[in-house]
Amino acid sequence: MAIENLSGLLSKTSYPGRGIVIGKSMNGKYAVTAYFIMGRSVNSRNRVFTATEDGIKTEAFDPSLLTDPHLIIYHPVRKIGSDLIVTNGDQTDTIRDFVAEGKTFEEALRTREFEDDAPNYTPRISGIMHFADGKYGYELSILKSSEGNPDSCERFTYQYFAPISGEGRFIHTYMGDGSPLPSFTGEPEKVEIPDKINEFTSEIWESLNADNKVSLYVNYTDIATGESDVRIINKNT
Q1: Is 27 part of any domain?
Q2: Which one, 6, 137, 172, 201, has the greatest CB density within 10 A?
């Protein structure tokens, strides 16, 4: 699989939906993750990322405009022990609870399915970053309907326990705009990961469709020390 420029991938479509990137910086120093959300409806666009003690949560920017919190209000990022979880829904909490019980990322996601938002049946995308003894690896997952058939949930888990410096994997909910929205297909895309958090944050934010982008979270964690540097951008300010 050829390595891609993330800004190029994002610029190709007006609506990749929600997306997760996880990888390692070019200099090998940082474990990197990014998560973004987009929206087409007033309800979806009326959101911000807010920092929490263990990660971030989504909140309504204007509470008076919130019509349905289902599927849009959740904790996208939560830390459990030395692991960092990032997802596009409330499965973040499912994974956290299973890990706390000594179970695995994959075991947690066997209890979940794609979102109940017919006719899109939006995939649940999830990632977990593992840190131990100065080493780092990560996993990604997607749960999706079988080509739009809600009677079948397809589950895919991808493990990267020896990530290569300068490389990451990008998974997102949709392949583009449409009605219904077409679910992501294929393996997570291989993308370039730079050394500088500000550079990567700007690259993603500026490449997302201006009308549809809502919020972005980026985290660079020093693999040796565990110290994190975080950026949060909200269109609604």
Answers
A1: yes
A2: 172
